[in-house]
Amino acid sequence: MASGERVYRTSHELEIGAPAGVVYGLIADAERWPLFLPGTVHVEVLEFDGCEERLRVWAAAHGTTHCWTSRRVLDAAERRISFRYEGRSGPVRAIDGVWRVEERGTAACRLVLTHGFTVTADAHGGAAPTVGAVDSGIRAALERLRSPAERWAELDGLVLAFEDMTRVKGPAELVYDFLYRVGEWPDVVPHVARVELTEDEPGVQRLTLDTHDTDGALRSTTSVRLCFPHAGRIVHTDTATSALVAARTCEWQIVPDTRGVSVVCRQAVVVRDEAVEQVLGPGTGLTEARRLLREDFGRHALAVLDLARARAEQAVRTIHLL
After folding, report:
1. Strands annotated E in the chain
2. Would you state the pLDDT for residue 232?
3. Same domain membership, residue 15 and residue 138
4. Do 143 and 236 belong together in one domain?
5. 146, 92, 80, 85: which is closest to 122 by C-alpha?
């Protein structure tokens, strides 16, 4: 351990009114964290053998986006998950810990997180602010798990997942370029009114997007987008949503084949059901909210897909004419 570093160990507990298996499942299914854990942008499973896995995690906090890898060992029988971060930089390093879910009857459990981390003292030799921030962050993460866990019986109705697709007779690179240049969309995409974009590091875009709804109202969201040009993928998670949406993730994927290119937009939305009647009017419910969100987000996705297709195919026709 380097000079000026100190190891801290903490333990946190939370009583949750949900079956132990439900809570374990939420923690184990890391790829769905962006829907249920605010601040998580994207999680990719790099390796998995049924017991041990290696994850790559992106998270947004305080105006910046952080990325790290994590190794986990999952024990479903004991409802226990141990983890260790790799390649973490900054004042908080060498993070490891264990999640345990203890059954407290058929519909209740205790979630226990034991956590260890190394803190590098700041320029004044103090680590207390960093330790305090880590502690409050852990408490907030535990509390954020409570809501989806205790509403486990409703999640199938609250979560809406769908995809839209188009075929393109043109280069995948041109399609990707159009999707990547989101800052130019207000000039070419009818429903996009304004984009405020920053890209402090290549491939990590933070943006505020103003779009027109069906009724003409202006909706503003903020998002983090992760761009993977070599894989032909762009994924993003909304970090501030509209009134009817509790969380939303999206992925644009470009898949070339021998006959052209398939471009798919996959989206997942969590409905904020407590806002349904306020937004849609008295007597409305999840059915109306799900239909409206599917139509709105699907129409916007298809508009972007059609423009990406037209740009790529027009470029091919132009080349053939030269």
Report:
1. 5-16, 40-48, 52-61, 64-75, 80-86, 92-103, 109-120, 159-168, 192-201, 204-212, 218-228, 233-240, 245-257, 260-271
2. 97
3. yes
4. no
5. 92
In the block, tokens 């854990």 appear at 37
CATH number, position 82? 3.30.530.20
Q: How far from the centroid of its chain's Cα atoms is residue 297's Cα?
A: 17
Task: Read off φ and ψ for residue 25, nearest 5 degrees.
Answer: -60, -40
Contact 227, 218 (CB under 8 A): no
Could you tell me which of 45, 21, 74 has the C-alpha nearest to residue 83?
74
Q: Are residues 164 and 59 in the same domain?
A: no
Which of 108, 134, 150 is the last residue in one of the domains?
Answer: 150
Domain end (from 134, 150, 166): 150
Q: What's the pLDDT score for residue 123?
A: 45
Q: Mean per-residue pLDDT for 286-315? A: 94
Q: Tell whether 127 and 259 lie within a shared domain.
A: no
Length of the chain: 322
Q: What is the CA radius of gyration of the chain?
A: 22
Give pLDDT tens digits for 240-281.
998 999 999 999 999 998 888 999 999 999 999 999 999 999
Question: For residue 318, what pLDDT band results from cuts at 50, 70 and 90?
Answer: low
* Whether 190 and 269 share a structural domain: yes
Q: Are residues 139 and 248 in the same domain?
A: no
The answer to whether the CB of 248 falls within 8 A of the CB of 236 is: no
pLDDT in tens, 117-129: 887 765 445 566 6
Same domain? 114 vs 166: no
Q: Provide φ and ψ at 311, rounded to 5°.
A: -60, -45
Lookup: tokens for 235:
């994924």
Residue 139 has pLDDT above 90, yes or no: no
Considering its fold, how many domains does the chain have in total? 2
If one compares 92 and 204, the residue with the highest pLDDT of the two is 204
259 and 160 part of one domain = yes
Q: Is 94 exposed, middle or buried (0-12, 13-18, 19+ CB in 10 A)?
A: middle
Where in the sequence is the domain holding 219, given as residue range(s)?
156-321
